[in-house]
Specification:
Oligomer: single chain
Distance between the termini: 19 Å
Number of helices: 12
Length: 383
Amino acid sequence: MRCTKAIIYTENLKNNISEIKKNLKPGVKLCCAVKANGYGNDAVNSARTAETMGAAYLAIATVSEGIELRKAGIGTDLLLLSPCCPEEFSDLLENSITPLVFDQEVISALNITASRLKKKNCPVFLAVDTGMGRIGCYPEEAAELAKKIAETENLELKGMITHFAVSDGISAENKAFTAKQFESFMTAIENVRREGIDPGIRTCAASAAGIAMPEYQLDMIRPGIILYGYYADEVTKEYLESKGIKLNLKPVMQFETEVAAIRRFSPGQSVSYGRTWKADKETDIAVLPVGYADGLLRRNSPGLKVTINGKAYPIVGRICMDQCMADIGKDNPDVKRWDKAIIFGPKEKGSIFDADDIAKMTGTISYEIMTSVSSRVKRIIQK
């Protein structure tokens, strides 16, 4: 097996789901986001784990993601959070995937496809745009669209959904905007009810609001990043604790490789493309067989560091497609060929850096760090 791999600690995923469930009000359902290959953490394993721990829904972003889960034997309801094209409607319905709808065109087209396939009572969620600006009907359109769904022969309104834009920010301005979004969503729901239509499952909160703002939990929350061991931006562990909320998360993925070679460098000697780094003294360079095709993005150097035997070493020179180089210092007795080099992972497993640390080093977010780990990196599932 290639030495560059991602270790997936299922025990940590179970811990995170348990921690989330402790913070739910009675009767609140869980929709676990397993889209984007489980944020890089292996969608099938994430789905199976969430299923066994009582998730009511699993959130996906593409029909193909749903098909993969169905082929793996996942029976839990699947909620498709992103739009799909008409060519995918048949696969969507054949695999019992619940889509979001937000205009008459999609409602009609889905109903026609369901009729052709002889599918009845096909569940849909009505998406409402309360301020995110991506997809969804405007709040004032919700009641009319709910009526259109009710008038179809084959579709059933199973729920209503919106998404918060800044619930992971803790400023007064961000909190006020989130409150405004919530108010708009509740108004849309009430308008649907006035038409005598059951809005179904009401869901608006993802990782941040679902935990930090329990008043927004409604019928179901949709955790994503917190499933995989990371807090949502400014809604940190410390912030939650200041509000009396306990959420002890553990990172699920460890991204690692090995030292493939150690090279001696003299002052002035350069490494990698563009000669962007030159040794200012005698040193040794560890060559690591991991690069931007694996998800170690080229822009991450300089700035990135890796853990080898409990110590941090800087990546130097430009990260290549398949390799990168770390400055380990001259005649370092703590680094030997074939030693493990950890890019990021749970700190209790020996890494100095988790995905949040790497994100801060490189000016991004933990979501991107994990989802960037490419498909050619084998996921090793630890139960």
